[in-house]
Amino acid sequence: MTLGRSNSVAVAGVSGQVVEVHADIGAGLPSVTASTPGIAAQVRDRIRAAITNSGERWPESRVTLAARPAVPLSGAAHDLALAVAVLTASGAVPAERGTGVVFLGELALDGRLRRCRGLLPAVLAARQNNHRAVIVPEQALTEVAAVDGIDIFAAPDLRAVLGWLRRQQSLTTPDQFVPEYGLPRTDIGDIAGHSQGKRALEIAAAGGHHLALLGGAGSGKTLLAQCLPGILPPLTDAQALEVAAIASAAGTDPGQGMSRTPPYVAAHHSSSVSAMLGGGSSPLPLPGALSRAHHGVLFLDDVTELGTRVREALQAPLTEGEVRIARRDGITRYPARFQLVVASCVCPCGAATETGCGCSPMARRRYLDRLSGAWSDHIDIWVDLSHNATGVTAPARETSDTVRARVSAARATAARRWQEHGYTSNAEVPGSVLRHDFSYPTAATIPIESALQVGRLSARGAEGVLRLAWTLCDLRAADRPNDQDVTDALMLRQRTRSPLT
Predict the structure, then answer these.
(1) Residue 261 CA neighbour count, 13 Å, CB half
(2) Which of 122, 226, 336, 466 has the most CB atoms at less than 10 Å from its CB?
(3) How would you class 445 by CB atoms within 10 Å of its CB: exposed for 0-12, middle for 13-18, buried for 19 or more?
(4) How does the average pLDDT of the chain come out, rounded?
(5) What is the number of other CB atoms lying within 10 angstroms of the CB of residue 16?
(6) Distance of alpha carbon 169 from alpha carbon 323, whole angstroms
(7) Could you tell me the end-to-end alpha-carbon distance of the chain, in angstroms, rounded to an integer?
(8) Spatial separation of the C-alpha atoms in residues 266 and 302, rounded to whole Å
(9) In degrees to the nearest 10, what's the CA dihedral of 422, 423, 429, 430?
(10) How far apart are CA 313 and CA 21, in angstroms?
(11) Confidence band of 352 (pLDDT split at 50, 70, 90)
């Protein structure tokens, strides 16, 4: 046989396209050519060395490599598929054994299979295209073990894959894998005092709202933000798989597989637009901090120190829940639906107390003006921790588990209410549904109308107040928001001291 075939997956973002890899052995002087972009000279040399060092013979004639469809085979995940195609063309392995099997993994010069980024999206694409099995490196077994509906085999090297194709040996298969909810990064019960901040976290978690924490240095902003993932409901199987796919695409999967714990990403204030949205110099754009926080929490400390371009770059992802990275070969999309928590001091000096601040009122005003902009209008809850003394001891220790139970109950109520509209949390509901499909008492909406007329609230802000009112309603297990819910929501939305204490 002079033509060999195998299957691989070309990954773009967290989606993949199954490609058929071809190897043709024809007449001519010994050489290796590629008719598909991405199969560089170093790739061809690596495959040849891996085959010969695995005890196989490289064809002593002209070898042509290609893929159908002719998409660029960027990255090293196609090494194994290319090697199998060459050995199938030379007759070293039977062709029928590899039918319906997808081969993924990078080959070392000695034939060992190495893990590479993007394996989980590739396995999901293979399952979606109804392939019967996939072979991955042993190092990546825990990364893909939770995917059902397709047979997964893991091999240490090329020799083992060839032995399986020749029916001479078996390969490792994953044991039953059940994702677990890990322990909270910081338990909310370990924080003394801060009743206002804790209540704000609970409201944000219950409705999926974005949150801003203001206060001096050492006021507990970072500590509170770290508590938010611990009071969020566990991820569903589908959500955990999406989060794991992004980690796989980024190459940051710790080798522990899927987890039901919402991710927590803290981006430094010196981060660039590329670090936040994604990109990099690799052929396949890497996901940025926004996408790595998908279904979790993105924390931006010292948000006023972020570059203006970075702050404004948050606008589109906060609106659309997606990041799009344009390159010459097309547009890569990464999901980015996260809860944003920003923290900032209230003056340039960052004094812990008002008495220790020497900044002028004008300097404080200019500093806080950095929090304005289209992106900040997406933040529903503003909390000033400057006047909320922490205290030495807490009167009662309410743990993250206790708060999470209330949050989960409120989210379940919201999910049932918005089910027919296709939404699962209050923060996702568009203004058209809030205004037209649900009625509110006239007295309850008067404060919102007044704030709109005097310019203290934008149209988006008015919708945010209604979403917050529904969350407060859900937390007290009521059927419909009342006047107090709307008033409290309006105070939370505006940067005034809120009624949470």
Answers:
(1) 20
(2) 122
(3) buried
(4) 87
(5) 27
(6) 44
(7) 78
(8) 11
(9) -30
(10) 39
(11) low
| Three-state helix/strand/coil letters over 285-308 | CEECHHHHCCCCEEEECCHHHCCH
Please state the φ and ψ torsions of residue 29, each to the nearest 5 degrees.
-65, 150
pLDDT in tens, 19-31: 999 999 988 888 8
Q: Which residues contact 450 (CB under 8 A, 6 or more apart)?
A: none
pLDDT of 497 above 50:
no
Q: 192-225 burial string, b = 16+ CB within 10 Å, else e?
A: ebbbbbbbbbbbbbbbbbbbbbbbbeebbbbbbb
At 136, is the pLDDT very low, low, confident or very high (cuts 50, 70, 90)? very high
Return all residues near 258 (Cβ < 8 A) that are at least 6 apart. 146, 177, 179, 240, 241, 243, 244
Average pLDDT over residues 7-24: 91
What distance in Å separates the CA atoms of residue 304 and residue 344, rounded to the nearest whole number? 6
Q: Is 468 helix (H, G, I), strand (E, B) or coil?
A: helix
Express the helix, strand and coil content of the chain in percent, nearest 5 each: 40, 20, 40
Cα Rg of the chain, angstroms? 27
The 10 Å Cβ neighbour count of residue 168 is: 9
Distances (CA, A) of 300 to 216, 343, 407, 428, 479: 15, 6, 23, 21, 35
The two structure tokens encoding residue 403: 């708060």
In angstroms, how far is CA 16 from the centroid of its own chain? 17
Helix (H) or strand (E) holding 278: strand 278-279
Distance CA 328, CA 16 (A): 18
